[in-house]
Amino acid sequence: MEFLIPTRTARPADDPIFALNAEANARKAKGESVINATVGALLDDDGKLAVLPSVIEALREVPPVQAAGYAPLAGPQAFLQAVIGDLLGGSPLAEHAIAVATPGGTGALRHAVANFLEPGQALLTSSFYWGPYKTIADENDRKVATFPMFQWNGDEGELDLEAFDRSLNEVAQKQGRALVFLNDPCQNPTGYSMRPAQWRAVRESVEAVAAKVPTTLLVDAAYFLYGAGDPRAFLQHLQPLMGKAALAFAWSASKSFTQYGARVGALLVVDPEVTRRKRTLDALAYSCRGTWSNCNHLGMLAITKMLSDASLRAKVDSERAGLTALLGGRVKAFNAAAKGQGLRYPRYDGGFFTTVVAPSGVDVASAAAKLRERGVFVVPQGDGLRIALCSVAERDVPRLVEEVVAALR
Q1: In the prediction, which pLDDT does 400 show?
Q2: How many domains does the chain have?
Q3: Per-residue confidence at 16, pLDDT binned at 50, 70, 90?
Q4: Averaged pLDDT, 106-135
Q5: Which are the contacts of 38, defined by CB distance < 8 A and separation ≥ 6?
C-alpha cells in the first residue's frame, strides 16, 4: 500500500547539482586533480567558501536573547525597510514598495508563484533558467513556460526580444494573467546581463500585455551586486510600469552577503495604489504564516545592522568589492581563453556562471560525462553546459576551457 499521494511518488532524491558537487569533492579528497564548476557559491582560490568578515562580526554582535526570539511573521520592519532601501533606494519605486521576509530568494519566488498565479497556470521565463524555478512551480501546482532566450549572431547571443514578446502574449491570452521571472543582472545559468535598450523593450512588452490582463514582472535580483556597472541602473527603465503591472523583486542575502546558510531573503512588490498594496502585503504575510511561519531572526537582525549602519555598510561594500574583483578576474580569464575557440555562449561580463551551448548534434549529458572522466565537473542543462566560475580558481580557467572545447567536439 502506497501512503504518498500519486503526484509525490516519483520525486528525485537529490538535486542533481548537489549530487555532482558531492562526487567532485569525494574524488578531490582522494587526491585527484579536480575542477569543480558546479555549485553556485563563491570560493576563494584555495577552494574555501569566501565570506565577508564584517558580516560574521555583525552576526556575533547580535544579543543572543534578541536573536532567539520569534521574528514577526512578515519580518522585522527595520529589516524590510533596509532591504527596500538596499535594492530600490534612490528610485521612486521605493516610495511605493512593500516587502516580506523569506528564507532566501527561493522563498520570494515561492510566494510570487503562489500569489500571482492560479493553480495550473504557468510562469514565463527564459529557456535558460535556474532549475528550481520548475521545482517551485511544480511543488505549488503551477508550471513553467519558456521563450527562446537568445538570438545568435555567430557565437554571441543577445536576448531574443521578439520571442519574449510573442511568448508573453501567448501566455497572457491563454491564462488571462501573466507572471514573468527575469533573473538579471548576471543571469543564472548564463551570466547574461541586459542592456538599457533591452530593459526598455521588455518593459514595453509587459506594459502592452498589462493593459489587457493582470501582469506581474518579477526581477530575480540575487546577483545584482556582482554585475558590471551600476547595479541599480535598470530600475529607471521599470518606473513607467508602476500602477500598470505589478513589479516584484526577489532579494537575497545569500550572494550579496555570502550568507547562503542564513536563509535571509525578501520579496518586494511595488504598487502605487494604496488599497491594492495593502491587500498584497496581507496576502504575502498570510503566505508566510502558512509556509515557514517566520524566518531566521539572527540573520535578519545582523543584515539590518549591515544595511543601516553607514560605517558597517561601507566596510562590507569594500570587502565585497574584493570578491567582485576576484570573480571578475575569472570572467576575464574565461573570455580570453575562449576567444577563437568556437565556443558559443552569451555575452558575459560578470556573475557566478556562464553557459556554453553545445553544437548541433552534440549531446550535453555525454559531454559532461566525458568531462567528469577528466576530472572536470560542470552541469549539463538543456542544450548547454553550465559552468560555475564562482568556484573555479583563475589559474584553472584555461584548463577548464580547453577541456570543454575538447568535450564538445
Answers
A1: 97
A2: 2
A3: confident
A4: 97
A5: 17, 20, 21, 24, 377, 378, 379, 388, 391
C-alpha cell read off for 203: 518593459
Lookup: cell for 187: 543571469
Percent of the chain with pLDDT over 90: 91
Please report which confidence band the pLDDT of residue 17 belongs to, taking 50, 70 and 90 as the band edges: confident
User: Which of 262, 291, 309 is where one domain is finished?
Assistant: 309
Is the same domain home to 327 and 188?
no
Supply the pLDDT for residue 153: 80
**Distance between CA atoms of 181 and 250, rounded to whole angstroms?**
10
Enclosing domain of residue 35: 6-52+313-407
Tens-place pLDDT, residues 127-166: 999 999 999 999 999 999 999 999 988 767 789 999 999 9
